[in-house]
Amino acid sequence: xxxxxxxxxxxxxxxxxxxxxxxxxxxxxxxxxxxxxxxxxxxxxxxxxxxxxxxxxxxxxxxxxxxxxxxxxxxxxxxxxxxxxxxxxxxxxxxxxxxxxxxxxxxxxxxxxxxxxxxxxxxxxxxxxxxxxxxxxxxxxxxxxxxxxxxxxxxxxxxxxxxxxxxxxxxxxxxxxxxxxxxxxxxxxxxxxxxxxxxxxxxxxxxxxxxxxxxxxxxxxxxxxxxxxxxxxxxxxxxxxxxxxxxxxxxxxxxxxxxxxxxxxxxxxxxxxxxxxxxxxxxxxxxxxxxxxxxxxxxxxxxxxxxxxxxxxxxxxxxxxxxxxxxxxxxxxxxxxxxxxxxxxxxxxxxxxxx
Amino acid sequence: xxxxxxxxxxxxxxxxxxxxxxxxxxxxxxxxxxxxxxxxxxxxxxxxxxxxxxxxxxxxxxxxxxxxxxxxxxxxxxxxxxxxxxxxxxxxxxxxxxxxxxxxxxxxxxxxxxxxxxxxxxxxxxxxxxxxxxxxxxxxxxxxxxxxxxxxxxxxxxxxxxxxxxxxxxxxxxxxxxxxxxxxxxxxxxxxxxxxxxxxxxxxxxxxxxxxxxxxxxxxxxxxxxxxxxxxxxxxxxxxxxxxxxxxxxxxxxxxxxxxxxxxxxxxxxxxxxxxxxxxxxxxxxxxxxxxxxxxxxxxxxxxxxxxxxxxxxxxxxxxxxxxxxxxxxxxxxxxxxxxxxxxxxxxxxxxxxxxxxxxxxxxxxxxxxxxxxxxxxxxxxxxxxxxxxxxxxxxxxxxxxxxxxxxxxxxxxxxxxxxxxxxxxxxxxxxxxxx
Lengths: 355, 436
Known about the structure:
The structure holds 2 protein chains of 2 kinds.
Chain A: H1 13-16, H2 23-43, H3 46-72, H4 80-97, H5 103-122, H6 130-150, E1 163-164, E2 168-170, E3 173-176, H7 182-204, H8 207-217, H9 219-224, H10 229-256, E4 258-259, H11 266-279, H12 285-307, H13 314-332, H14 337-350
Antiparallel strand pairs in A: 1-4, 2-3
Helix pairs in contact in A: 3-7, 3-10, 3-11, 3-12, 4-5, 4-6, 4-10, 5-10, 7-10, 8-10, 11-12, 12-13
Chain B: H1 2-18, E1 29-30, E2 33-35, H2 42-63, E3 71-72, E4 75-77, H3 82-92, H4 104-117, E5 121-122, E6 140-141, H5 147-158, E7 170-176, H6 179-182, H7 185-195, E8 198-204, H8 213-222, E9 226-230, H9 234-246, E10 253-255, H10 262-266, E11 276-279, H11 288-298, H12 315-338, H13 345-353, E12 356-357, H14 359-365, E13 374-375, E14 388-392, E15 397-399, H15 409-426
Parallel strand pairs in B: 1-3, 2-4, 5-6, 7-8, 7-9, 9-10, 10-11
Antiparallel strand pairs in B: 11-14, 12-13, 14-15
Helix pairs in contact in B: 2-11, 2-12, 3-4, 12-13
């Protein structure tokens, strides 16, 4: 009843394979986009934008990148944090070497650097699989963070060893750096994330996406039906690392404002991996749900005790509740939040006459 | 129907998130603190946070706050994580007098933002050394001494007052591989060039803090004449145990004030005898303020202190007290000047520029001998109080001498001016102030 599909007839194959075969889905997306583009910027406080909305979007993007590699192409990676770092450092170098460069172009280009690094470290995936590949990407993680620390050229020989974002203007607006207004940064991130998500949806449900999925499900069978494994795996590494690199550039330039090398260390990789796993491997929506759970929920919970006038240390509450929630969700739905939503949606379609 | 309900749900969600903004009352003096009571740096972070909070609690208990206005020392846990630091900054910035980042990494992040948002950053004894330049860093303060002051005092100590004595010697800098640990390097390099000694920076990664065998192997091989340490948290204990194990002479091993922590030295006990550190503060449990804290806060059970371990008498706990005292002094100066009870950030900034901690004032406040006397001004945001050399006698820190050592101003001020300008240029447009 809520999700009534009766009466929505498809008269062509194209209509049947449209992005939203059910009208309500499209409506829901419109509402979400409306909220994200219009309602949030108008109503959200500065704290909400800087501590909730922007990080959720950036982490979602990073998880989306990882999900393409791990969820769609089945190649486990533990190097996401380092690939984000490559994007961030590349963007920093581009901006400092060419100060006139448009920030959009710099961010778009920095993705290519991390894509190249990702492909290089993805080469072992041609010979090894599963946990062994995870170890190879772990090597990338350690090596790259070490490189960020030792290669002083990367941070322009700054005494602190950290990179700092200058004020960057675009068409007369300050879009990045300390002088940028939170709403501007939010719109910038939102537009980039929306665009890449749209691209990712279409890649993953098209020819390339099906190629990745077949490699994930059984690579020998995929090879037998004529899929070039090398091309499939390396393209997954390239696309994934590109998105992760862009998210890394956004992470530092549009949110943090400064970064030291150990920021990109393994905890960041794990965090992104958790988002992808809890959100649901092999789904696009899951990255957003996962990021909301892992990134936003602790912040919201952290402010609750004060809201109710309790004097419990918020960090205690945070660790306990967030930990319990993650375990609870994994027990209820091991396939992630995206699958959870799918079940709810199916039930809604049936309701009130389940069979 | 569907859309109606979803819209309702969406509106509820929006309403929720829009109000996720922590509120602090306006009718008190908000001096919130970024703490790390968890994580690898908790050993250093806990006593400092306790000391800071307990001084404010004591004033609230004893005097009902400052001139009748309650002091609020709300904490935000960062775990030394720069990401949480941003969140805490966003949480506090709208309604606070001050930001205390408690990490050079977080300072790096909030410094440019604070200059735009007009919030004073109080990074006592840490942060950027170039922050001393009050005209450039109008919103940042690092009293009573900067890292470069500390580095200069340490060098003077090992050189017996004449840096030319170091000619041909080798000085190792064992430092945390983090913005904090790298802070003294530019100054030390300059001295090394000028006075002909070899500087050997030995970084300790965040992952190697507890196990520094590689670094100490290097020290054994290179045999430096002196080892200076810029350590924090678990790194201090790791270095001291390694030094004791490898038998490095403790009288050639010196640390900055954050490496002079009782709990770390207790790990090596007698074997740490002779280890020295420079410190701008020193514990004095008999002072009036400390006695009041003991009576009104600790014994009344209002403190988070671990009384059984003797934390009350340690350098770090009482340094926390001092840091809060500096802020309260700034607030009281501002109250007097603006003839107001509650303050805004701009007024508090004026207060931080006008802290006069001379001997008489310290006695009046009941803080005798707990901090080096100093005063800040519009141009000088550090105060440059210098520091004592404190020495571990096997059970506690004692003053190696009563003399307060001063840093070499000429070299530091010149370098600070250069670095401050570099910073401002890299962060254009950067708002500065002009002092009379």
